C-alpha cells in the first residue's frame, strides 16, 4: 500500500457523497417502497419463519439487497465514468499500485453500502423496529456482501467499454441474482429445483447470513453462509487484482 | 556519465496489423528541451504513453532518470509528469480539489503552497474553487498542466499542449515551461506548431510510421535541410545570368536565390542593381523547421549517429 491510497479512498467516498441524493437517498426510498408494497400485499399471507412477522423478515433482506446493488454501482460507475471521460489517466500516471486501486475502490463501495444500509434501517425504524442480537454477524456479512459486489463492480467497470455494456451486466446479472436471493421469501419455501438453484447464488448466503444477525434464524447455518460468501469474495478479489495487475483494458 | 532523463531502447508496440512503435530508441539528457515531432499517427503519443506506463510495449524498455518504467514504476512515475493530449477532467471536483487529490496520489500531504503557485502561474487563481465542468477548454488544459506538475517531476512531457489554445495562454505556458527548463527540468514536447519547436527546443526527434526518422540538434537539422533565401520579384525584367544559376522561380514570379549570409545578400543585391533590374518586392527568409520537416517526411533521413 502506498501513501497515495488514503487519497484515492477519500476521492472515491467524496465522489458518491457529493451526489448522495442520488447515491444514498434514492436507494433508501426504493427500499422503503418495496417494504410498503410487499408488506401490504404479503404480510397477511406469508410467514417466512414461525413467530416472525413478515416485515421483520423482509427488512434485513431489503437492506442487504440495497447494500449489494449500491456496492456494485459504486465501483462500476466510478470506473466506467473515469474511463469514458478519460480522467483515469491521472490515476494511472500516479505511483498508485494495483493493490491501492483495489483496496480504495472496494472500501469506498463498502462505505456506500454501509451508508445505504444504515439509511434503510433508519427510514423503516418507525415501522419495523429491529433489535440486533448478533452484531458481529451483521458486520461480517455487511463487509463480505458489499465486498463481493464491490469487486464484481470493479471487474465490470474494467471490462465494459460503454455504459450500455455495464447496464447489461447490472440488469442481467446483478439485479436477477439479488432479487432471487431470498429477499422476499424464505428459500426453504421454494420447490426443490429452485431451492437448489438459489443455493448456487452467492448473494443468497450474504442475505441469509445478514438476516441471521437480526432474527437468529436462517435457511442455512450462518457459519456455512460466511464460509461460502468469504470464498466468493476471495475468488473475486483474486480475479480483480489479477486484472488490475495485467493492465487489462486500462493500460493498453 | 550522468543518468539520462529519458531512455528508450528498441521499443515496439503493435495494435493488430499496425506497428505503432517499431524499434524506437532515443535518449533525452537531463535538462534538455526536446521536441518529438511527426505527423498524426506517427507514434508520438504511443511512445509517451509507454513512458508513463499507460501502454505496455511488446518489446524494449523505457526508463525515466534511470528508473525502469515497468519494474520500478512507482519511482519512475514520481520522476515524470505527463500532460496528456486529450482534455480530460473529473466533473465531481473543483480545480483545487483536483490538484489536492492529484498531490495525494503521489503521497504528498501539505502541498498547498505549490498548488497556489501553480494556480497563480497558470492564471487559474480566480477559478480555484470553480467546478471543473464550468471551465473553458483552455482552462481545463491549464489544470491538466498543473496536475502533471503537482509532484514537481524533474521530467515533464507535454503532448500537444497548445492544440486549440489561444495566443495568450500559449505565451503564458511557454514562459512558464521555459522557466521550469531553466530551473533544471527536462522538457519533452510534441507539437504540430513547428515554429514553437524551433524556438524552444535544442534537439529534435522526428517520427514517421512508428520509427525515428531524424534525431539531431535543431541547429544541425536546420543547416542540413533548410537555407536562408533571398526572394525577389522583378518588374518587367529577367534575373541577371550571374544570379540565375543557383536560383529558381515559382509560378507567381518570385525568384528564390539561396544565400548563406548577409554579405551574399548584399552582393546579390549589387548584381541586381548593376544589371539594371527593377525590384518590386524583396524579402530574406531564415531557415525553417517546417521545410526540414517536409523534406524529411518526404524522403526520409538516416541520422549517421545519435547526437548525445
Describe the structure.
- The complex is a heterodimer of chains A (252) and B (308).
- Chain A is an all-alpha fold and 252 residues long.
- Chain A has one domain.
- Chain A has helices at 5-17, 20-42, 54-85, 88-92, 98-124, 135-159, 163-179, 192-198, 202-215, 222-246.
- In chain A, helix 1 packs parallel to helix 5 and helix 3 (54-85) packs parallel to helix 6 (135-159).
- The radius of gyration of chain A is 18 Å and the shape is globular.
- The mean pLDDT of chain A is 94.
- Among the domains of chain B are: 6-79 and 153-223, P-loop containing nucleotide triphosphate hydrolases (Rossmann fold), CATH 3.40.50.300; 227-286.
- In chain B, the strands form 3 sheets. Chain B has a 6-stranded mixed β-sheet, with helices on both faces. In chain B, strands 2-1-4-5 form a 4-stranded antiparallel β-sheet. A 4-stranded antiparallel β-sheet of chain B has the order 12-13-11-14, with helices on one face.
- In chain B, helix 3 packs parallel to helix 5 and helix 8 (218-225) crosses helix 11.
- Classes of the chains: A mainly alpha (252), B alpha/beta (308).
- The interface between A and B is medium-sized, with 28 and 30 residues.
Amino acid at each position: 500500500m502506498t501513501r497515495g491510497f488514503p487519497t484515492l479512498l477519500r476521492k472515491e467516498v467524496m465522489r458518491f457523497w457529493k451526489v448522495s441524493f442520488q447515491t444514498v437517498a434514492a436507494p433508501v426510498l426504493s427500499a422503503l417502497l418495496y417494504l410498503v408494497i410487499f408488506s401490504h400485499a404479503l404480510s397477511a399471507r406469508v410467514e417466512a419463519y414461525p413467530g416472525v412477522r413478515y416485515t421483520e423478515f423482509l427488512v434485513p433482506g431489503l437492506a442487504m439487497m440495497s447494500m449489494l446493488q449500491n456496492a456494485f454501482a459504486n465501483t462500476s460507475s466510478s470506473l466506467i465514468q473515469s474511463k469514458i471521460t478519460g480522467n483515469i489517466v491521472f490515476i494511472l500516471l500516479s505511483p498508485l499500485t494495483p493493490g491501492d486501486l483495489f483496496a480504495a475502490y472496494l472500501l469506498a463501495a463498502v462505505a456506500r453500502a454501509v451508508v445505504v444500509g444504515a439509511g434503510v434501517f433508519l427510514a423503516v425504524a418507525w415501522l419495523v423496529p429491529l433489535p440486533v442480537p448478533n452484531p458481529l454477524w451483521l458486520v461480517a456479512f455487511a463487509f463480505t456482501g458489499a465486498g463481493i459486489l464491490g469487486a464484481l463492480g470493479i471487474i465490470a467497470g474494467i471490462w465494459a467499454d460503454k455504459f450500455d455494456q455495464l447496464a447489461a451486466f447490472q440488469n442481467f446479472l446483478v439485479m436477477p441474482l439479488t432479487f432471487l436471493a431470498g429477499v422476499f421469501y424464505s428459500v426453504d419455501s421454494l420447490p426443490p429445483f429452485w431451492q437448489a438453484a438459489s443455493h448456487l447464488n452467492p448473494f443468497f448466503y450474504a442475505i441469509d447470513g445478514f438476516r441471521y444477525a437480526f432474527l437468529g434464524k436462517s435457511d442455512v447455518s450462518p457459519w456455512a453462509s460466511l464460509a461460502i460468501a468469504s470464498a466468493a469474495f476471495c475468488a473475486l478479489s483474486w480475479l480483480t487484482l489479477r486484472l488490475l495487475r495485467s493492465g487489462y483494458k486500462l493500460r493498453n | 556519465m550522468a543518468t539520462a532523463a529519458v531512455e528508450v531502447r528498441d521499443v515496439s508496440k503493435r495494435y493488430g496489423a499496425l506497428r505503432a512503435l517499431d524499434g524506437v530508441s532515443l535518449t533525452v539528457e537531463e535538462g534538455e528541451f526536446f521536441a518529438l515531432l511527426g505527423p498524426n499517427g506517427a507514434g508520438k503519443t504511443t511512445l509517451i504513453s509507454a513512458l508513463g506506463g499507460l501502454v505496455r510495449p511488446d518489446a524494449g524498455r523505457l526508463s525515466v532518470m534511470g528508473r525502469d518504467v515497468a519494474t520500478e514504476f512507482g519511482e519512475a512515475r514520481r520522476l515524470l509528469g505527463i500532460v496528456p493530449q486529450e482534455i480530460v477532467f473529473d466533473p465531481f471536483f473543483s480545480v483545487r480539489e483536483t490538484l489536492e487529490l492529484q498531490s495525494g496520489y503521489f503521497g504528498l500531504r501539505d502541498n498547498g503552497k505549490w498548488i497556489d503557485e501553480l494556480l497563480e502561474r497558470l492564471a487559474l487563481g480566480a477559478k480555484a474553487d470553480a467546478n471543473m465542468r464550468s471551465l473553458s477548454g483552455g482552462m481545463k488544459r491549464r489544470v491538466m498542466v498543473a496536475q502533471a506538475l503537482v509532484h514537481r517531476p524533474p521530467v515533464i512531457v507535454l503532448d500537444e499542449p497548445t492544440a486549440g489554445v489561444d495566443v495568450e495562454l500559449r505565451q503564458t505556458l511557454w514562459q512558464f515551461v521555459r522557466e521550469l527548463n531553466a530551473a533544471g527540468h527536462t522538457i519533452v514536447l510534441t507539437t504540430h506548431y513547428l515554429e514553437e519547436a524551433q524556438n524552444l527546443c535544442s534537439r529534435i526527434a522526428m517520427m514517421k510510421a512508428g520509427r525515428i526518422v531524424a534525431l539531431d540538434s535543431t541547429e544541425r537539422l536546420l543547416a542540413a535541410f533548410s537555407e536562408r533565401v533571398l526572394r525577389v520579384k522583378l518588374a518587367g525584367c529577367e534575373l541577371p545570368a550571374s544570379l540565375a544559376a543557383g536560383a529558381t522561380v515559382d509560378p507567381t514570379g518570385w525568384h528564390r536565390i539561396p544565400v548563406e549570409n548577409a554579405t551574399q545578400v548584399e552582393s546579390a543585391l549589387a548584381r541586381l542593381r548593376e544589371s539594371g533590374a527593377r525590384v518590386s518586392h524583396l524579402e530574406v527568409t531564415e531557415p525553417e523547421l517546417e521545410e526540414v520537416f517536409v523534406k524529411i517526411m518526404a524522403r526520409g533521413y538516416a541520422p549517421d549517429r545519435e547526437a548525445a
